[in-house]
Amino acid sequence: MNKIVKKEFLSENVVKLVVEAPLIAKSRKPGHFVIVRVGKYGERIPLTIAESDLANGTITLIIQQVGKSSHKICSLNEGEFITDLVGPLGKATHIERFGTVVCACGGVGTAPMLPIAQAMKKAGNRVITVLAARTKELIILEKEMREVSDEVVIMTDDGSYGNKGLVTNGVEDVIKREKVDLCVTIGPAIMMKFVALLTKKYDIPTVASLNTIMVDGTGMCGACRVTVGGRTRFVCVDGPEFNAHEVDFDEMMMRLNAYKDYEK
Question: What's the CATH number of domain 100-258, 3.40.50.80, 3.40.50.620, 3.40.50.2300, 1.20.59.20?
Answer without folding.
Answer: 3.40.50.80
